[in-house]
Amino acid sequence: MTKTSTIRILAAIGFLCFGTFFHVQAQSLAQQGTSLEDIVPAGWLHHEATGDLNKDGIADLVVVATPDFQENLKTRDDGYVYNFNQPVLAIYFGTQQGQQRLWKQYGNVIPANESENCSHEVSLEITSRGTLRITIGLFCSAGSYGTSTDTYTYRYQDGDFFLIGMDREEMMRNTGECTTVSENYLAWKRQVTKSNAFDDTAPDNEKWSRLKKSPLEKLGAREL
Length: 224
Known about the structure:
Layout: H1 3-26, E1 32-33, H2 36-39, E2 45-51, E3 60-66, E4 73-75, E5 81-83, E6 88-94, E7 100-106, E8 118-126, E9 132-140, E10 146-157, E11 160-172, E12 177-184, E13 189-196, E14 205-210
Antiparallel strand pairs: 1-7, 2-3, 3-6, 4-5, 6-7, 8-9, 9-10, 10-11, 11-12, 12-13, 13-14
């Protein structure tokens, strides 16, 4: 291979790499912005919540955005598009200048849809006390009678977000049996309640227990 050929090949590889890098850079959440349109690329599905997370008197922003990368989309015969891209969770702290600046983003927290029969529904809330509540519901149209909804409560302290509570609701659609589990990682208590959605006369069965104390888990430590 001649020197000229080698140079041409390296130049072509460099061009392809630059093109790929540019595509990735263009298709990502912005580092800062004054609106969702500034932050979330057009075409991405997103959920958001605003409120004061770090207690500085300025509204902050939390976003869950799902890319529309074509390699992870599947179109059904009737035209419906399944999106199997990995959602991104991002936290922005507000500034006195009216900007929202990225504090941290996570690519491994919100589960992606992995099948045509089951999907995740995500909602976000920042409470009046400044805690962040992330709710993830799982619904399967086939293969399972069970549905579940998990809510994780995080609080910003000591420079990071820590899990202080978790609530899980499960229901069997065929029998109406419901189980609710609530865990408080500040009081280290666990409540389990069993009921039946189809029978209002059946008494609820409630049990309390103590949890073993351990260090609070940071946001991003695992997929929810």
